[in-house]
Amino acid sequence: MALLHRPQSAAARHVSPGAPPAVAGGETSTVWPGLAAAAGGALAAWCIHRVVPAVPMLTASVVLGIAVAHLPGLRGYVRGTARPGLSLAGRRLMRIGIVLLGLGLGLDQVLRLGWATVAMVAGVVAATFFGTLWLGRRLGLPGDQPLLIATGYSICGASAIGAVSEVSGSDEEDVAASVALVTLCGTLAIAVLPLLQGPLGLSDLAFGRWVGASVHDVGQVVATAQTAGPGALGEAVLVKLMRVALLAPLVAAVAFSVRARRRGVRTASGRRPAPVPLFVAGFLAAAALRATGALPDLALEWAHTAQEALLAAALFGLGSAVHLPTLARTGGRAAVLGLGAWVVVAGVSYAGVLLTA
Hints:
Oligomer: single chain
Number of strands: 0
Number of helices: 17
Helix content: over 70%
Largest sheet: none
Radius of gyration: 19 Å
């Protein structure tokens, strides 16, 4: 089954309607306003998270990016002067943040959960990805939105969407719309899932596993699972890390699909696309480095802080590319896909938790 339904030229990547041309080599001064705006958005998101801990920093970043793109006094600046830097943040900073995400992947801890749990998580990811991809195409969602939304639901939300968009060459508007939908649904899970623990008959530990297997973003997992106590939180984080570990093979599969469709076609730089993107190799190398135990706790803490800051700035840049009137034209179909994907991931992961209890 092909993962992509349409090839796209390199020149069309990450360009939204009305956006200025990509910054030419040597004209780096034009990206600084946008990079400064992305940094300011990440700082504002951190402040919101500090004041309201239940709101994950990355979720706040996306919402703030969408907000500033529609405020009368700022939208012209965001879509004009700041656009090159914001687009750069959404691509390059996302890659670096994903590499650092590998340092938070405790492979030794993940493997302690046992092979039954590993098989359960793999099954959840596969069912969610292919089910959402199929439904998105049946609903006729435009561009790469079915692929990107399927990735976000099945792996780790906005971070996974950013990773796959790098190898699929997706339009910036498709990326931004997918991030907005996945972030919205993941945020709703923080309020909805704790209410279902009792009716579904889940113990605290089983609830933690269910949350880790079904909620998208790591911050949203933490915010949801902590309602059932530290035991549930620990289980949720471990299961979630197992899903994050599947990011690399999924991105590699998409890259292979792109390479197969563009066989013989070179990129704008004159080179064929790499079979495995460099940032995916960096993610795996970071995870391997973490597994050696060579890095002190302080270094891991600093890396986690840098990862959060980079991903927040990148997601602010992606959020600023959302154009709500355009999104509204496919809003009904996108909402149906979001609900359908939510039912799939929650239902399959619930069955998996019961089977592996």
